Amino acid sequence: MKKVLVVGELNVDIILNNIDGFPEIGKEILAEQMTVTLGSSSAIFASNLCSLGADVTFLGKIGQDQFGELIEDTLQKKGVKTDSLIKSKAYATGSTIVLNYDLDRANITFPGAMEHLNAQEVEDGIFAEVEHLHVSSIFMQPALKSGILDLFKRAKSCGLTTSLDPQWDPSEQWDLNLQEVLPYIDIFLPNRAELLNLTKTSTIEDGIDSITDVANIIAVKDGAEGSYLINKGKTEWLPAFLNKNVADAIGAGDSFDAGFIFQYIQDKPLIECLKFANLTGAINTTESGGTKAFENKDRIMEIAQTRFSYSI
Ligand SMILES: Nc1ncnc2c1ncn2[C@@H]1O[C@H](COP(=O)(O)OP(=O)(O)O)[C@@H](O)[C@H]1O
Ligand SMILES: [Mg+2]
To answer: What is the arithmetic mean of pLDDT over 263-275?
Structure first.
């Protein structure tokens, strides 16, 4: 199995539940419940990939503070290697305050240190220790984004396979040159909305058509509607392992990515990668948050069996 390097954003989520009402300037309201936990898509991906059984190293930027310690500690407990984390003296660890109202959320993010990770800080030396590079949340990391082409080119020239989940662009500018970067990405993992925004199209078919000549393999997540695999001009679709009793969908896309990459780094056929991705995406939705259902391999297998009649 190939060893994986994850380069991505790291932050802490402060989640407030059962809130009195909406906050108003000059007033104070109460929340009944609070959870402080490791946030960020890249961390969910790395943790869950590790729980599935992969060897995973994380390279990201945190501050020299208590939130940074919480992040390092949580990743380590999940089995993710943290020796390559960069601990900035200049910047504080980022955090997101999540205000939960029933099924909807209002978030405020302070990006902090993760905004300042740049591609040159991912040195060639680390590529000698791994065989696959995964990058996520490119729009949350402007310094990394400006060097993304160089990063993927270097990884490819060191013989790595590569994947990218672009994730949402909070600025909604969707400024990423796909024509330039996709040739260096083996697996491109957008969800439907991200694909359409990035390609400025309005259907999955048009979105795929617009990049198929430069892309290698594309896997498009479409929530409960399943997912698509595009390889060498051919598109295949697989249904979701439908969960009609969703706890929440936080991290479902990251768990989908983890499932896909877990099979890919074992050289499994691509359609099996996609099917397993649908399974891990669905497993994610059976518990709240992105990592709870992926506590360990036994728990993952149990949920697969009891909720989706699937034996891993
Ligand atoms: N209700 C559901 N039942 C089963 N699987 C789901 C459900 N919702 C999401 N998933 C799985 O999670 C994956 C990612 O969800 P999606 O919302 O498309 O991505 P993202 O989290 O990036 O927005 C889907 O492709 C699917 O496999
Ligand atoms: Mg996503």
So the answer is: 98
| Cβ contact 127:102 at 8 Å | no
Q: Confidence class of residue 99 from pLDDT cuts 50, 70 and 90?
A: very high
Is the separation of the CB atoms in 187 and 217 below 8 Å? yes
How long, in residues, is the chain?
312
Ligand 2 center to 9 CA (angstroms):
13
| For range 214-222, the mean pLDDT | 98
Distance from Cα 23 to the centre of ligand 2, integer Å: 28
Query: CA nearest 259: which of 277, 275, 242?
Result: 277
Using only the alpha carbons of the chain, give its radius of gyration: 19
Ligand 1 mutation target, pool 238, 245, 285, 288, most atoms within 8 A of CB: 285
Evaluate whether 41 touches 11 at the Cβ level (below 8 Å): no
Domain ranges of the chain: 4-9+41-92+113-308
With respect to CATH, is domain 4-9+41-92+113-308 assigned 1.10.10.60? no
Q: What are the tens digits of pLDDT across the range 24-38?
A: 999 999 999 999 999
pLDDT: is 239 or 18 the higher one?
Answer: 239
